[in-house]
Amino acid sequence: MEFTKMSGTGNDFIVIDSFHQPVDIDYAQFARKYCTRKVSVGADGVLVLGPCDDTADFTYRIFNADGTEAEMCGNGARCAAAFAVDRSIAGANMRFRTLAGIVEARVNPEDVSIRVTEPHGLHKDIAITVDGRDAVVHHVNTGVPHTIWFVDDLDRFPVDALGRAVRTHPIFAPAGTNVDFVQATGSGSIRVRTYERGVEAETLACGTGAVASAIVGHAAGRVGTSPVLVSMPGGNLTIDFTCMNGDYSDVWLTGEVSFVYTGTLVL
User: Fold this and answer.
1) Which one is catalytic: 35, 73, 79, 243?
2) Does the pLDDT of residue 87 top 80, yes or no?
């Protein structure tokens, strides 16, 4: 089976085109095997593009490295859009179906933009205790659930330990949550480190996490109006949005995408 390795601002994926090579495999098991770093291809997840009805150009599925299927992945969606254009699956302006709903995308000359599903379930000022530490966090769903924890010194913060503790905290059961640690750096900029559910570790970037951090940052008065520049370990992402009476809409995520290599796996 042919695959393409892609990266979206540091999030890396194994991308599979099931249009031209229909393969009947267990993608959850496939992800667990081939996303393992150092002994296989290695990736944060597996993206599968397949046929769709006339409501969209294609379907998009994302399987995390642990085999769980996620509703949505922002950087993965941007990679899928660039891949669809490269394979002539869709034009530069497209729509594709995810478990979180229809996503619109634009493949630009230098980057890729996606319009994410409208954020919902915004809850501010949630008091929790993890590892003996009291914290006030915020929660929002940007296609997948995210919990935001504002910190003063992002570089020194124990992201892995506290990210794991928040991700499995009973208040977010049974689905769990992604966890974004956010430091405001200006009226229109933030730094973010994310502990990703499904990867079960810190990743270099998270698209839906960047969106969640920007939205909550605005709602909490930490940043001003759109756009918001989000700096992550893997690079920068830009979030544009409209806010009317506390409701967020027309949310766009923009950043770079790269094709790393194409290979063949013997299944």
Assistant:
1) 73
2) yes
Calculate helix-pair angle for 74-86, 207-219, nearest 10 degrees: 130
CB 143 within 8 A of CB 178: no
Among 3.40.1080.10, 3.10.310.10, 3.30.930.10, 3.40.50.300, what is the CATH number of 120-255? 3.10.310.10
Catalytic status, residue 52: no
Average pLDDT over residues 18-29: 88
Q: Which residues contact 236 (CB under 8 A, 6 or more apart)?
A: 9, 229, 230, 255
Instruction: State the catalytic residue, choosing from 35, 79, 206, 243.
Output: 206
| Amino acid 240: pLDDT | 98
Which pLDDT tens digit goes with each residue over 178-233?
A: 999 999 999 999 999 999 999 999 999 999 999 999 999 999 999 998 999 999 99
The token duo for 245 is 């009476």
Which class would CATH give 2-112+256-264?
A: alpha beta
Strands 93-98 and 58-64: parallel
79 catalytically annotated: no
Look up tokens 């003063």; give the residue: 152
Q: Is the pLDDT of residue 20 over 90?
A: no
